[in-house]
Amino acid sequence: MTTTQFTLNNNASNGTSNLSYLLSDKSRALIDTLSPAMVEEVFGPGDDRCYEPTRGYRDPEWYWQASNGSVWGIAWRWGVPRLRGRGGKQSNQSGPFWVHPKEEDAAEFVEFLLGQVNVDAA
Fold first, then answer.
1. Measuring CA to CA, which residue among 52, 71, 68, 51 is closest to residue 60?
2. How many other CB atoms are there within 10 angstroms of residue 52's CB atom?
3. Alpha-carbon distance 12 to 62, whole Å?
4. Model confidence over 44-54: pLDDT tens digits?
5. pLDDT grade, residue 65 (50/70/90)?
6. What is the pLDDT of residues 27-45, one digit of tens each?
């Protein structure tokens, strides 16, 4: 059950990176079923400022600000979906220092995303 609130914010990509390694095999298989068209149908147009076809970035990306301070997103490189994100800011730091997200956080975001796009996660 998702307890974190996710708010679409395609301007929140600063500091994010590929976090697909945090996904379980099941979550990886489910996220692989997503296409940019499926995400756009639910969330509207994504951020296309990342468009660099020679580097494999040919599709828009979507990002969500989470209520716990982290940022999560879905992007495609060479047509393969990738989980992107970063953790929330460290409480004792000022500047661009983020806590590394956990596997549980990644699973919660994937559950949210798949639920919104209506992909059967069973």
1. 51
2. 10
3. 9
4. 999 988 778 88
5. very high
6. 999 999 999 999 999 999 9
Residue given tokens 């969500």 in the structure block = 64
Which pTM does this prediction carry? 0.87
Answer whether 35's CB lies under 8 Å from 119's CB: no
Cβ neighbours of residue 66 closer than 8 Å, sequence gap 6 or more: 4, 5, 6, 7, 72, 88, 105, 109
Q: What is the rounded CA–CA span in Å between residue 27 and residue 103?
A: 11
User: Using a CB cutoff of 8 Å and minimum separation of 24, what contacts does 90-96 make?
Assistant: 96/15
In order of 7, 26, 53, 86, the CA distances from 17 in angstroms are 19, 21, 18, 7
